[in-house]
Amino acid sequence: MSLKQNLVMIVVYTLLCVSERSMGLKHNYGDALSKSILFFEGQRSGKLPPTQRMSWRKDSGFEDGFQLDDDQFFDKVDLVGGYYDAGDNVKFNFPMAFSTTMLSWSVIEFGKLMGQEELKNALDAIAWATDYLLKSTNTPGLVFAQVGDPFGDHNCWERPEDMDTPRTAFFVSSDNPGSEVSAEIAAALASSSIAFRKFHHDVGYSQRLLQRAITVFEFADKYRGSYNDSLGPYVCPFYCDYSGYQDELVWGAAWLLRATKIPNYWNYIKQNIHNVKNFAEFGWDSKDAGINVLVSKLLVNNPASKPFNLNADKFVCAVLPESPLVSVSYSRGGLLFKTSGSNMQHATAYSFLFLVYAGYLNQANKKIDCGGGVIASSMRLKQLAKSQVDYILGSNPLSMSYMVGYGQKFPKRIHHRASSLPSIDQHSSQIDCKGGSFYFESQNPNPNLLLGAVVGGPNINDEYVDSRADFVHSEPTTYINAPLVGVLAFFKSYSS
């Protein structure tokens, strides 16, 4: 047996051992699901509703849209609402839209498994984003891409309720296009229209979302270009588009095809799919693997789906640890790793795709041949997804949950301004830009539990330092949680 084969067997054996430990440690997926959705209430911007459950958070961002990056066109635009993407107070619409798409896809695929209460909460979480995305696309010829100056914001440590840094609103237009952010917003609106049509029975709202998705997609496609070119000084290095905008255009068309069944979108996908080449990538920046899985599900047993199936199979073989084609890494404890910050985003997003594609494999009655005698079945995909979610919930070498508020041991000092500063209920006077530094540097646990927040996670050696300063590992994001909602819904039902 070669050295490479030996290493592969060691990795597989390790994962199987972790899986066996996980089976012995009974996880409450229903509780984790509830908390993973509740997390989004802690990220809300705007006027909070009477139904707000995370009560230590208060109203914020009331004047968003009053200060534009080009005042010659407008006086004010209503951009109140939406989500802060992570532990800061900026609204980055590119990752926000992706999180919305993934929340919607979670509901579309697994909403029936959530239970009535959590399905309603998930739809509320989607609506908080879509109401804002409708505002962001309400001005003809413009799509708003961001609210807040990230450099000013990152120089401060203050509650969103207190923030006094510039709340500049940045937009893309026909003269300064941003196809990636526009097309991702189109995908978010189209996918959410399906979720509301399927479960909420709000035909009017669903139709409004779909019509706006169509308009925004046309804008994204007609005026092609990256928002890096015009908004680079403000969106980079935070959410630069590193993979190009072509994947978002095909992704948006795929969701519009699913929402409308209009053949023109299928023609668009076929004509442009050659621009989507990173079959093993999926996340807020690269939609490639998601496109292939989504289209495969749309065209089960249709010969036209063959190239998408082949690339989705390649994705599986690039992630499966025992595959000779594996291109990702795994920690000794079994956590999937890729070279980037907030590593848990890969574990949750890839697990979601594995579960969706497992459903496709069942429908198509097929398995995947990765070569070297490795055959991937639907069950194997589910096992790998389960190993990732169980690791997150505490089946790991540290026996630590990486979801705040789940289990007995979880991160207490997460990199999150609102969570780490006393709430207005406890400290009514303003805490200014540098006034929060004392709390940031404190070794005390955060005073407010951001229930359900999943942090960036441990390093590849399964080590975790519970430190606010270590934002790569201790900061939660909406795009970590959004796909996890669907994964937890599946295992809530599957385990029972």
UniProtKB/TrEMBL annotation:
Signal peptide (residue range): 1-24
Catalytic center residues: 415, 466, 475
Q: Which family does it belong to?
A: Belongs to the glycosyl hydrolase 9 (cellulase E) family.
MF (Gene Ontology): cellulase activity
Pfam families the record matches: Glyco_hydro_9 (PF00759)
Task: Name the reaction it catalyses.
Answer: Endohydrolysis of (1->4)-beta-D-glucosidic linkages in cellulose, lichenin and cereal beta-D-glucans
User: Could you tell me which residue ranges the Glycoside hydrolase family domain spans?
Assistant: 29-488
User: Keyword set for this entry?
Assistant: Carbohydrate metabolism, Cellulose degradation, Glycosidase, Hydrolase, Polysaccharide degradation, Signal
- The protein here is known as Endoglucanase
Query: What PANTHER family does this protein map onto?
Result: ENDO-1,4-BETA-GLUCANASE
User: Biological process GO annotation list?
Assistant: cellulose catabolic process
The catalytic activity of this protein is classed by the Enzyme Commission as 3.2.1.4
